[in-house]
Design brief:
4 helices, about 150 residues, elongated
Amino acid sequence: MTDADPEYAVSHPAPARDQVSTPRMLLALILAPAAWLLQLNASYLFASNACDPSAGPAEASVVPGLWLLLLLINLFCLAAGAAGAWISWRAWRRSRTEKKGDRHTLIDIGEGRTRFAALSALLVSSIFLCAILAEAAALLILQRCAPGTWI
């Protein structure tokens, strides 16, 4: 048993780490959740008083331009979430040749960390992109306090 024996040879667990930079991977992982958080907080900030359900129909204040502002916030957050998903998809595609073997073998030996991180970022971005789309759909469907027109 020597170190040169290929059966016991140990390589770096993330050999494709130079193909995807760490800041890009972090951006891919954080961009869509941050966009959703921005969308949620900005929508609440601008629409909370105008959309107060305890106010009667006569007391509901319609703020001019609120619907357009909320639409622009939603579109910006949708673009940021899509950018996060695109960056993570590109990182996943770049690291596809990181290690040889099927996914079960790589999971057992714990190799292919760059590909795992990229796939995790892709899943997180997809989930938060769905959340952003659901909130944007609510803006188009529920127009009690910020009536707008369909574009």
